[in-house]
Design a protein that fits this description.
It is built from 10 helices and 10 strands. It has 242 residues and is an alpha/beta fold. It has a domain at 9-95 and 163-241: Rossmann fold (3-Layer(aba) Sandwich). A 6-stranded mixed sheet has the order 6-7-8-3-9-10, sandwiched between helices. Strand 7 (164-168), helix 7 (176-191) and strand 8 form a beta-alpha-beta unit. Helix 3 (102-109) runs parallel beside helix 6 (146-158). The longest helix has 16 residues, at 176-191.
């Protein structure tokens, strides 16, 4: 008889506020991500989706609130400590190191680890997950196509062996066929036990693969529910699904 994996909260955000100068970018955000889920944040540009991810990874410093990760409030931790705790952030725009090879980009993603044999095994795992990267292992990252750079950005994030992956706009600027391939990879990651908090401009596609979703408007959460409910919600359809 199959045993269901018990669900528990891996991440809980409570009353999170972030300011950019005098502008309040996030207003008392509350959300939960359970282990083994894909949870998506959807909303218009400027709604606060990317800011939420940056606050979790401490790229920006929250003004107030709590970020509870595996039972600990990590809001005062430094960015490198966040990675060490098991959270990886794959940023919008890919941000690969253009003048470094694919292989060296992956090595840099493993900077918190010291076991060389394990790092080599991790790189090989990424090459098995992303065969195109294996073919281009010695190629400069800046010469890759947009889709290949996105694969490299995800693979580099996985080199820290995260339990929680913050994934920001993985489809941005990519052709539809490449987007479908990227989203297949994201679903496969969930199957391997990686929990994912996904920010994605393509709300329809995000809700098709997500377990649950949150809708942000002007820095506040205005709607939440199962992805299957949100995708058929008239308000969501009208505002985000076209």
């Amino acid at each position: 008889m199959d045993t269901e994996v018990p669900r528990y909260s891996i991440l809980e955000i409570k009353n999170l506020c972030v300011n950019y100068g005098g502008i309040q970018a996030l207003k008392n955000i509350n959300l939960v991500v359970n282990n083994g889920e894909i949870v998506t944040l959807i909303g218009a540009n400027g709604a606060g989706k990317s800011t939420t991810l940056r606050a979790i990874s401490k790229i920006v410093n929250p003004r107030s609130g709590e970020i509870i990760y595996q039972g600990r409030n990590i809001i005062r931790r430094q960015p490198h400590e966040i990675v060490q705790l098991g959270i990886a952030h794959c940023p919008e725009g890919r941000r690969v190191l253009a003048r470094q090879t694919v292989y060296d980009n992956l090595l840099l993603g493993a900077y918190i680890h010291r076991d060389e044999a394990q790092i080599k095994a991790d790189i090989q795992r990424q090459f098995e997950r992303f065969p195109r990267l294996a073919e281009r292992r010695n190629q400069l990252a800046g010469t890759l196509s947009g889709g290949e750079q996105q694969m490299l950005a995800i693979a580099r994030s996985l080199m820290s062996r995260p339990k929680l992956l913050l994934l920001d706009e993985p489809s941005l600027g990519l052709a539809p066929a490449i987007v479908r391939e990227i989203f297949r990879i994201i679903e496969n990651l969930r199957a391997t036990g990686v929990t994912i908090l996904l920010v994605e401009q393509n709300a329809n596609l995000a809700l098709q693969i997500a377990d649950r979703g949150y809708v942000l408007e002007a820095g506040s959460i205005v709607l939440t529910g199962a992805a299957s409910e949100l995708i058929s919600d008239e308000r969501v359809k009208k505002a985000y699904l076209g």
